[in-house]
Amino acid sequence: MCDSRSVAAFIHDELAPSGWDQRLLRRKCLCGKRTLYITYRLKRGDPERVSIRHIVGLGLADDYLPMIWETFRHATPGTRWLDFKYQKGRSPWGLTKRLVLTKPQLSRLLRAYAKATGSPLG
User: Fold this and answer.
1) Alpha carbon 83 to chain centroid distance?
2) Would the pLDDT of 38 be above 70?
3) What is the CB neighbour count within 10 angstroms for residue 81?
4) Which of 34, 65, 83, 110 is packed most tightly, with the most Cβ within 10 A?
5) Degrees to nearest 5, angle at CA 80 with 24 and 107
6) Segment 34-43 mean pLDDT
7) Which of 25, 19, 35 is nearest to 69 (CA)?
8) Is residue 10 within 8 Å of residue 69, measured between CB atoms?
9) Region of 63 on the Ramachandran plot (φ > 0 left; ψ -120 to 50 alpha; else beta)
10) Can you give the pLDDT at residue 67?
11) Residue 2 has what pLDDT?
12) What percent of the chain is predicted at pLDDT more than 90?
């Protein structure tokens, strides 16, 4: 549904430069009837599907991009999960690693989330 070759490329090339325009995360299906979300499995072989509702991040030094992903499991769509991720440049490597932030960076990330989504956490 987009021209990017991977989720990491989409974030680096489209989502971050847009100022975290959340409308980019939901695309209309070519049939025009459904909305498509980025969907993935938590681990290989796991039947549980997870879809992304929001992604918001902060551009820091050295092309380091810490992010908050608000997700939902298809088994319990009303429960929202927050997943803290990062990537460096267009590399997806950090998307599966632990995110570590300073307190000021975390505060900035939470404020950026509230601004981009219109709903503060807490």
Assistant:
1) 8
2) yes
3) 13
4) 65
5) 75
6) 80
7) 25
8) no
9) left
10) 96
11) 63
12) 54
pLDDT beyond 90 at 66 = yes
Tokens 């989720």 appear where?
7
Residue 56 CB burial class (10 angstroms; 0-12, 13-18, ≥19): buried
Alpha-carbon span 58 to 66, nearest angstrom: 6
Q: Do residues 101 and 23 lie in contact, with contact meaning Cβ atoms separated by under 8 Å? A: no
What is the SS3 string spanning 14-39?
Answer: HHCCCCCCHHHHCEECCCCCCEECCE
Residue with tokens 């409308």: 23
Query: Is the model's pLDDT at 53 over the cut of 60?
Result: yes
Those residues with Cβ within 8 angstroms of residue 118's Cβ, 6 or more apart along the chain or in another chain: none
C-alpha to C-alpha distances, 7 to 1, 34, 68, nearest whole angstrom: 12, 20, 14
For residue 118, the SS3 value is coil
Residue recorded with tokens 């939901």: 26
The two structure tokens encoding residue 87: 């990537």
In this prediction, residue 122 carries a pLDDT of 66
Q: Which helix (H) or strand (E) holds 106?
A: helix 103-117
pTM here is 0.87
